[in-house]
Amino acid sequence: MKVEGVFIDSVGVFLPEHVSAEQGVADGLYDEEVYKASGLTGTHVAGEIPALDMAVAAARTALERSGLDADDIESHIHSGVYHQGPDGSYPPAYVLRELGVGNVPSLHIRQGCNGMLAALEIAVGQITGAAEVETALLTCGQNFSTPLIDRWRGFGDSYILADGAAAAVVSATGGFAELRAINSGTLAELEKWHRGDESLLPPQSSAGEKLAVAERAALFNEREMPLTETVERISEFDLGIVQRSLVDAGINAADLARVVPINQDGRMIEYAVLAPLGLPMSRSSWEFGRGIGHVGAADLLISLDHLVRTGELDQGDHVLLLSQGPGWISSSAVVTITDLPAC
User: Fold this and answer.
1) Is the separation of the CB atoms in 182 and 245 below 8 Å?
2) Which of 60, 146, 229, 307 is deepest in the core (most CB within 10 A)?
3) Segment 131-160 mean pLDDT
């Protein structure tokens, strides 16, 4: 989908205490062989800070950087990977209440680590469509500090889960990055890869059972589709989504200054994304992201904010944002840096 007249005005980030992968190994939480092979060097742990409170903190930073007040927000879209509040509660309303935002539409996106680009795609429709929204607030936050999740091993060897949050003010009037294209898709044949053989009822969370995504995936690869075939299908599918965004943006892969994927094992990023695009790993955000951990849907904004504020991106640079989630869902977007934030 080609996009015109939509900008990322500002970004806010909240990251709690950093914990190194070396410390994880020393504490017996992380496997040393996996640590040495993956290249992942750390994560962030929030303890008892709720995901929504971190999202509020990130949103306050984004609003401050934009120079806007809470009254200027016309739409809010929130995403989260894991627990956001008591069952039956509405997480976006908590964020809006804490920020003092008035009577505006809000949405809760449940697309896992793909949530931020999904939210951005919705914001595009709100800004360019009949709603005529001028300013939308996107928030996301995660806290994996629970005995029901093993942040070091529970999602396989390619990830270390991290706590934190990010927010973005998306505007119709301008910003530091102009959105050029965004696309998404669902590879439904891999739905069982993250569900395994588990029934749709009863709710597993109420039973206090440990989340076992890696075990589900292994079961799927054993009974339904070999891992090599699964990875090949995912790579082909994701690259198709990326190519659509590059074409819509009117650029080639060689024109990209940086590729910003979710934070994972660098070998996966190189094999599935950079190498097929004919780009070196130095064009990715991995060198930074490897020490952050996988903060769910917040990864892309955290890395983009870092690249802009450390001078690694300049005006006119094109950036590819790429994320995925269970289902199998995938989204990609192309932004062009139009200005450098003052602070």
Assistant:
1) yes
2) 307
3) 95
